[in-house]
Design a protein that fits this description.
- By secondary structure, the protein is mainly alpha-helical.
- It has helices at 37-47, 56-65, 88-106, and strands at 27-29, 51-53.
- The protein has a two-stranded parallel ribbon with strand order 1-2.
- The chain is globular, with a radius of gyration of 15 Å.
Length: 110
């Protein structure tokens, strides 16, 4: 995204050595939590999806109903069917800063 570089999350927040990355693509949204690796794999393959989440579709639906322009920025905190091994509060603090940086970079072009 236009020269924006993101720092890696700390290990306490579940980060690796590599920096976070911004990707664009299909994100599936539904009305239930998905905690099944076989279902996750099937949905990813069937719809060529990069991620599956549960909040973005509801936000989009309400915005569309009221004629509000919307964009959803997702930070993935866990993978369906896998244990999340990080300190959630640390993760939230770090990704909030990253999400704010992404939003600040997006606002001028929206």
């Amino acid at each position: 995204m236009c020269g924006l570089s993101l720092s890696p999350l700390s290990r306490r927040a579940g980060g690796q050595v590599t920096p976070a990355e911004i990707v664009y693509g299909t994100v599936l949204s539904g009305d239930q939590y998905l905690h099944s690796e076989p279902t996750q794999a099937r949905l990813h393959n069937e719809f060529n999806a990069l991620a599956i989440e549960i909040e973005g579709g509801a936000v989009a639906q309400v915005c569309e109903a009221f004629g509000i322009v919307w964009v959803v920025i997702r930070t993935l905190s866990d993978l369906a069917g896998r244990d999340s091994r990080f300190e959630f509060n640390q993760f939230v603090n770090e990704v909030a800063a990253t999400s704010a940086a992404v939003l600040r970079a997006l606002l001028p072009v929206l």
